[in-house]
Amino acid sequence: MNPIKTYQFKVVLIGESDVGKTCLVLRLTKGIFQSLHVTTIGSSFYTKTFSFEEDEEVKMEIWDTAGQERYNSLTRMYFRGAVGAICVYDITNKNTFVEAKKRVEDLKNESPDSIVLLIGNKIDLESQREVKDEEAAQYAEENGFLFYETSAVDGAYVEESFKALASLFRHYYNNPNFIQEYTTHIKFNEDEKNQQKKKCC
């Protein structure tokens, strides 16, 4: 049996307050949904390991950063050394999508080669949607970002979205120029969206 190759990467979780960043990472790492929790001040640290094939795994070090504007300068400190970033917005709040774009700009100023996963959270509240998935998908595609819509409440697409990012990290490890080359774009197809709407509404 071949020894397991472990790739370890730092990831920052960014976005406005109340978009569900901590809820997403708790769903991912502990399999729970916790609606009431203390607002993140500074950052919190989590890890998640994804297995690929028989002899490869990616250990993701996730830094969950504060969403309040007054902590922006502190949040930027965590961008250094980050190979990837997960930028989260709330599909029921248009302003969080606008602010998410600003957070990505800040990230790219500090860490221009970071791989970005854009997540529209709270698809369990589809009837309250303010951000069209087509709009977010276009933004992601134009900038070469991964894109998923998720629900921390029922776990929809949480594992899949983070694992897609981890998969890109494997390519990065074997080819440091990969970040400049990739133009991956992932979104729901119509069947998946319809099934999700039936599931969550």
From TrEMBL:
Q: Which PROSITE patterns match?
A: RAB, RAS
Q: Name one GO molecular function term.
A: GTPase activity
What superkingdom heads the lineage? Answer: Eukaryota
Q: Known Gene3D superfamilies for this protein?
A: P-loop containing nucleotide triphosphate hydrolases
The record's section on InterPro entries has: P-loop_NTPase (IPR027417), Rab_GTPases_membrane_traffic (IPR050209), Small_GTP-bd (IPR005225), Small_GTPase (IPR001806)
Q: Which family does it belong to?
A: Belongs to the small GTPase superfamily. Rab family.
Q: Name the chain's protein.
A: Drab5
According to its UniProt entry, this protein's organism is Anaeramoeba ignava (Anaerobic marine amoeba)
Q: What is the lineage of its organism?
A: Eukaryota, Metamonada, Anaeramoebidae, Anaeramoeba
